[in-house]
Design a protein that fits this description.
By secondary structure, the chain is mainly beta. It is built from 1 helix and 111 strands. A hairpin with a 2-residue loop joins strand 10 and strand 11. The chain is elongated and about 215 Å long. One of its GO terms (biological process) is sarcomere organization. It comes from Cynoglossus semilaevis (Tongue sole). Pfam families: fn3, I-set.
């Protein structure tokens, strides 16, 4: 008894033996007698290990490699505080528990390091100071992700292409697999290569990517993977191939087309360059004309420019019909062809233009022109008008200008008066006139000269000693105010005048003292700032003097003086009559001695009088070079002029005019400043490039356009775009840092200076600049191996490549104790071996990353390393003790190995050397050994041992390979332990191969030997024996046992009849050689021999088995063969008795088409010279009295396509026929990439190709002859060649629409 109660008169005792946790609780003691009752409660706590945690044990957040467990504290803590929990796990196919965590303080834990696809059971135990309590177990849980890999993205498209980059875009996958897409992976493949290359180094989260570092001219295709928490998707459909090349296009239309001039037989048209040149230089222009018609489609355009293309931006169209209207259009041409045309607005008529006369009077001529006496007056006035106007010069109120030399052309008129005097002052009128009208302007000229003689000199009062004179001011004051008068007198007996008063400021004067009775002459002279009047009263005497001798009249010389003019005329002049030769002289206007300023687009006109005998030759230069050809230079005997129309900034500079004759040379300098926008900035250079910025620097333009540079405008353009975008429009420095830029992108930059007249011409970078910088230093330079003459090193790529791919690494070496670093070599990989080193020396190494921007900082080895051979024992360290793989899947087990010298590696399986096959292979490297099993089979499971050995020792390790598969058949034979009239007890042994997990149950079937039908006895037998009840008395049965695990059912183990007998009592005098055994059915009288060979034992097992196929995974795959080759389908099978074999393929007699071979355990079908018609499904059926089995097999023969289906003519016109068809039923095992269409006239036998590159299922055949009858046929083409042609059913007559 566990509980024992004892009573005495005064006490009672309760004893509990071997207390356990459940014995705790409340014990109630009640005492009663006649006087009443008393009760006492005892609370008993049994100190023990805690009870199980309160369930259920929840498994949540299950993924392929972890899950979360949750539970509640135990209801019974065992009388002590729960100090922690122990969590354990085991695979459901194993019995051993593995510790996950101990001393856990909380009631939740994340279990890591699970194997995907394995089924696990977890348990949790509470711990107190008395020990570990009972366990709470979970239900079986399979470690797998609740999500799958995503669908592939949509096929990528290329949207922008340059010679070294392409921009891809794609769509999100249709399904994300239950987990958000975290990134995309992009790969490319060169048409000339076989390998896919990854493009992105960093995670790509957008739906576009710029693939860089492409080879110009190569064709590339791209594919994209999506990635989520479950892993990478399958790749997208590959894009078409795209060629890496800069996009070149035809140019845009020229801008601003306009008419400059017309005549009765010509039209002059002009235009500006196109805004967009198509990416390459404009090579010329084409001008076309046509006569307008009512219908635009009837207009005939003719090219009027030369065949070699016109380079200028203006052109005169000649040989036109007078009065005819014309349409004109202009097109630009580049290397890609002729661009879009632009039309001149409206129609243009070939007729003479009538322009009213116009006078471009210079601003200086609108003022009063002041000129010194004896100088030359030159009035130069540009004129225009159609027809050319006639010019007429007059003075004042219409007087003719006799002293002037007048010259008129189609563009200007000029008036020149030599040696002007006061009488040349006045208003000069210029009138130009043509049939369209007239125009008159006036120029006021003031000659600065001595004044003329005072007027009306009178004697108003005469006394004996004084005379009073009065007069009036001169009629011509000489262009300036008269300062004073000079009064002179002369006695009649004398010839010379004497001055009476030289500073008379009035117009009256009293001459005193005079001698009474004397006769006097008086005269008054006016004086201004230019001198005293040369005239006077009485008239002055005039003398002509040559070489200090006074001249008189002679046979060839006549002197004729007037009151107002001195005149000499020389007839038949001789050398002695002339003056000496005169050196050239240039009469530079004072305004031209200053800087001449003119606006861009205006015309420059320089007019310079010249002198010299003989007449000098004139040469105009600009900046020490001849003036440009378009400059108009005119030279006469008295002046030279220079006219330049449409001035631009390039016309600014120093203009030099040089006059030269036999007497000498004279040069004058005129500085011209054109007010225009600036020229391009100079010396544009790149100072610095980083992954996000480019720093530019430049110098001011050579030409500032005549105005101070206000600021600079900086613009950028991506190499994939056509237009520039402004970076800064108000830069006041000669440098600028352009940021932010997209890392890895290529940019062009341009700088423009701006002044008061606008933006100047740009300075553009010659090549595209990539936004990148030098990379960071490589990571973790380490020594991977060494010997007495070599050291092997390895490093990792830089954390950041600077935005440009690292092209190579520079490895350098330094001998310890020296300062010089020596280059070893450059490497494209991240490992290297430095050989030919001196034994026993210590060396230091460093490595530098190099991209297209330069070198990174070096990564130096942590310390020097000595060249010596290393020796240490080998070691092998598998990461896990076992590895599992599903049958038919691939398994790679990579195990690290160590040791110097390099150890030899030996693998064995189940104690025997491992046999290498095409499926099972070993790959050894210096640091790893790798077991590779392709399409794992059941017999690949087992214990694998790895032995590594070298001179220093050896080491072994063992791993278990578990092939997860359905189990093998139970081990026989089937034993009949007990047989009664209505039941049989049978037993068997477990399968030798359980498929990597425990057998969950057995399926037992029975069969009456008189039928072929199997009946289930039990589907869930857990043991290896069973009693089969309810059998018929006297009936004969066969039993089948099938093992089952989580991966499927095994083949069955069938029971068999074992017959035993004793040896004969006597051998007849000769040893018994063997026995023969016969059987007979109960209702038959015929005995049938069972054994085929002699039986040597006294037992015989009568085996029977249903027919079945013994094939592996390979046999169930599609067999692919090339056309023209032979193939054989060999199928092993089982069955007792040996089954019959039938081969079949729909519509084919295989006994005729192939060769069939049958043995007791296999059958084969051989097809010679296969073709497309041999593709399809083949089936082999085996059958016996016990049943039958059928195995289908697929064969794909790679051949050219079969004939297209249903070729017919859909529509017919007078010169065309439209065909349609359906794809071939047999495509030859490859996609039909194109169709060939051929035609044949009914009167001919030869077929003529129409097209060989049709990608649709319809085609329009054109250029057919009306009324003719044609036959058509279509041929498919794939990678293996042209297929079988298929004709339309009947000929087609080309007669019009049907």
């Amino acid at each position: 008894m566990k509980l024992e109660v004892k009573f005495t008169e005064l006490t009672t005792t309760l004893t509990n033996k071997d207390s356990i946790r459940s014995d705790g609780g409340e014990f109630v003691l009640t005492a009663t007698n006649v006087g009443g009752f008393a009760k006492h409660i005892f609370k008993v706590k049994v100190l023990d290990r805690p009870g199980p945690p309160v369930g259920p044990l929840k498994v949540s957040n299950v993924t392929a490699d972890n899950c979360v467990l949750t539970w509640a504290p135990p209801a019974d803590d065992g009388g002590a505080k729960v100090e922690g929990y122990i969590v354990e796990k085991r695979e459901s196919s194993r019995l051993v528990w593995t510790n996950v965590v101990s001393d856990l303080k909380v009631t939740q834990h994340k279990v890591p390091k699970l194997l995907k696809g394995n089924e696990y059971i977890f348990r949790v135990m509470a711990v107190n100071k008395y020990g570990t309590g009972e366990a709470l177990e979970s239900t079986p849980t399979i470690a797998d992700n609740p999500y799958v890999v995503p669908d592939p993205p949509e096929s990528p498209e290329v949207t922008a292409i340059t010679k070294d980059s392409m921009v891809l875009m794609w769509q999100v996958p249709r399904s994300d697999g239950g987990s958000p897409i975290t990134s995309y992976h992009i790969e490319r493949k060169d048409r000339a290569g076989l390998r896919w290359v990854k493009c992105n180094k960093r995670k790509v989260k957008d739906l576009q990517f710029k693939a860089t570092v492409l080879v110009a001219g190569h064709d590339y295709e791209f594919r994209v993977f999506a990635e989520n928490a479950a892993g990478l998707s399958v790749p997208s459909v590959s894009s078409p191939f795209y060629k890496a090349t800069d996009g070149l296009y035809k140019p845009g239309p020229p801008s601003n087309p306009r008419i400059l001039d017309t005549s009765r037989s010509s039209i002059t048209v002009a235009w500006n360059k196109p805004v967009y040149d198509g990416g390459c230089d404009i090579t010329g222009y084409i001008v076309e004309t046509c006569v307008p018609t009512e219908k635009m489609e009837d207009e005939e355009w003719a090219i009027v420019t030369p065949k070699e293309c016109l380079l200028a931006t203006s052109f005169t169209i000649v040989n036109l019909k007078e009065g005819q209207d014309y349409k004109i259009k202009i097109s630009a041409v580049n290397s890609e062809g002729i661009g879009e045309a632009v039309s001149v607005p409206d129609t243009v008529k070939a007729e003479d233009r009538l322009l009213a006369p116009e006078i471009d009077l210079d601003a200086e001529l609108r003022k009063v022109i002041s000129i010194r006496a004896c100088c030359s007056l030159r009035l130069f006035v540009p004129i225009r008008g159609r027809p050319t106007p006639q010019a007429k010069w007059t003075k004042d109120d219409g007087e003719r200008v006799d002293r002037a030399t007048i010259d008129s052309t189609t563009s200007y008129t000029s008036l020149v008066i030599e040696n002007v005097n006061r009488f040349d002052s006045g208003k000069y009128n210029l009138t130009i006139e043509n049939s369209s009208g007239s125009k008159t302007v006036s120029v006021q000229v003031r000659v600065l000269d001595t004044p003329s003689a005072p007027q009306n000199l009178k004697i108003t009062t005469v006394t004996k000693e004084a005379v009073t004179l009065t007069w009036e001011p001169p009629a011509n004051e000489g262009g300036v105010k008269v300062k004073n008068y000079i009064v002179e007198k002369r006695e009649s007996t004398r010839k010379a005048y004497t001055t009476v008063n030289a500073l008379c400021h009035q117009t009256t004067f009293m001459v005193t003292p005079l001698l009474e009775g004397c006769n006097y002459y008086f005269r008054v002279l006016a004086e201004n700032e230019y001198g005293i009047d040369v005239h006077g009263k009485p008239l002055p005497s005039i003398h002509w003097v040559k070489d200090e001798q006074e001249l008189g009249n002679s046979l060839n010389r006549e002197i004729k003086n007037t009151p107002t003019r001195a005149h000499i005329s020389v007839k038949e002049a001789k050398l002695s009559d002339g003056d000496k030769v005169e050196e050239p002289d240039l009469d530079i206007d004072p305004e031209l001695r200053k800087i001449v300023t003119i606006k861009a687009g205006a015309s420059l006109r320089l007019f310079i009088p010249i002198k010299g005998r003989p007449t000098p030759t004139i040469r105009w230069d600009k900046d020490e070079a001849a003036v440009k050809e378009s400059a108009q230079v005119e030279v006469t005997s008295s002046y030279t002029s220079l006219v330049i129309d449409k001035m631009s900034r390039n016309d600014s500079g120093k203009y030099t005019v040089t006059a030269e004759n036999s007497s000498g040379t004279k040069t004058a300098l005129i500085v011209v400043r054109v007010l225009d926008t600036p020229s391009p900035p100079t010396n544009l250079m790149v100072k610095e490039i980083t992954n996000q910025s480019v720093t530019l620097a430049w110098e001011p333009p050579l030409l500032d356009g005549g105005s101070k540079i206000k600021n600079y405008v900086v613009e950028k353009r991506e190499s994939t775009r056509k237009t520039f975008a402004a970076v800064v429009t108000n830069c006041h420095k000669l440098s600028w840092k352009v940021e932010p830029l997209q890392e890895g992108c290529c940019y062009f930059f341009r700088i423009m200076a701006e002044n008061a007249h606008g933006l100047g011409l740009p300075a553009v970078t010659d090549d595209a600049l990539k936004a990148s910088e030098v990379p960071q230093a490589p990571k973790s330079l380490i020594v991977t191996d060494q010997s007495k003459t070599s050291i092997s090193l390895a490093w990792e790529r830089p954390e950041y490549d600077g935005g440009s791919r690292v092209m190579q690494y520079l490895l350098e070496v330094q001998l310890k104790g020296q300062e010089k670093w020596s280059g070893v070599n450059t490497f494209k990989t991240m490992e290297a071996t430095v050989a030919n080193l001196n034994p026993g020396q210590e060396y230091l190494f460093r490595v530098t990353a190099i991209n297209d921007k330069g070198k990174s900082d070096p990564r130096v080895l942590a310390g020097p390393v000595m060249t010596k051979d290393l020796v240490f024992e080998p070691d092998v360290r598998p990461a896990f003790s076992n590895y599992s793989v599903h049958v038919g899947k691939d398994l790679n087990v990579e195990i690290p190995i160590y040791g110097r010298p390099k150890p030899t590696v030996t693998w064995s399986k189940d104690g025997a050397p491992l046999k290498f096959t095409t499926r099972v292979n070993i790959v050894n490297t210096a640091t790893h050994t790798k077991l590779s099993i392709k399409e794992a089979a059941s017999d690949d499971g087992g214990m694998y041992s790895i032995n590594v050995a070298n001179a220093a020792g050896k080491k072994d390790a063992t791993v278990e390979i578990i092939v997860l598969d359905k189990p093998g058949p139970p081990s026989g034979p089937v034993r009949f332990d007990e047989v009664t009239t209505q039941s049989v007890t049978i037993s068997w042994n477990p399968p030798k191969h359980i498929g990597g997990c425990q057998v969950s149950n057995y399926i037992i079937q029975k069969r009456d030997t008189t039928t072929t039908t199997w009946e289930n006895v039990s589907n869930n037998c857990a043991r290896t024996s069973i009693k089969v009840p309810r059998l018929k008395t006297g009936a004969e049965y066969q039993f089948r046992i099938i093992a089952q695990n989580r991966y499927g059912k095994s083949h069955g183990l069938d029971s068999s009849c074992i017959v035993e007998w004793h040896e004969p009592v006597t051998d007849g005098g000769s040893s018994v050689l063997g026995y023969h055994l016969e059987r007979k059915e109960r209702n038959s009288i015929l005995w049938v021999k069972i054994n085929k060979t002699l039986i040597h034992e006294t037992t015989f097992k009568n085996r029977t088995a249903e027919p079945s196929f013994d094939v592996d995974v390979e046999m169930r795959k599609v067999l692919t063969v090339k056309h023209g080759t032979a193939f054989t389908l060999k199928v092993p099978f089982k069955g007792q008795p040996v089954p019959m074999v039938d081969w079949a393929k729909e519509g084919v007699d295989l006994k005729v088409r192939g060769t069939i071979d049958v043995t007791s355990s296999s059958t084969s079908l051989t097809i010679e010279k296969s073709c497309r018609f041999d593709s399809g499904e083949y089936s082999v059926t085996i059958h016996s009295p016990l049943g039958k089995a059928t195995l289908p097999m697929l064969v794909q023969v790679l051949d050219s396509p079969g004939p297209p289906v249903n070729v017919k003519v859909l529509a017919v016109t007078r010169d065309s026929a439209t065909l349609a068809w359906e794809p071939p039923e047999n495509d030859g095992g490859d996609t039909v990439k194109a169709y060939h269409v051929e035609k044949r006239e009914a009167s001919k036998k030869a077929w003529v190709s129409v097209t060989s590159n049709c990608h649709a299922l319809t085609y329009k055949v054109e250029d057919l002859q009306e009324g003719a009858v044609y036959y058509f046929r279509v041929i498919g083409e794939n990678e293996h060649g042209l297929g079988v042609p298929q004709e339309a059913k009947a000929g087609t007559k080309i007669t019009g629409n049907i």
